[in-house]
# Entry
Amino acid sequence: MNNEPWLIVGALVATTFLLKGAGALLMGDRELPGWFPRFVEYLTPALLAVLVITQLVGSPDSAGMTFDARLAGFAAAVAAWRLKAPVPVVVLIAAAATATARALA
# Structure
């Protein structure tokens, strides 16, 4: 049995606890600077976008990018979302577009 994934998860948990503890220890009773909440507000969607894009065009087989049917599903989901479709409908449209693109390829 390969324990490597659990070691990585454990290391991430320990690092998270250490960082949270260090922040509280270093800041003490002081308030955060005024720019920090705005920074965090913009950082969250940026990180989510990076995760989505790397999962969308990343390829585990090579170091490059892969453009396949997932892009068609993503484009359809963005279009449906911009048209204010409910989330379940957006998911169904994305799945249908991806399946159609794979069937045509």
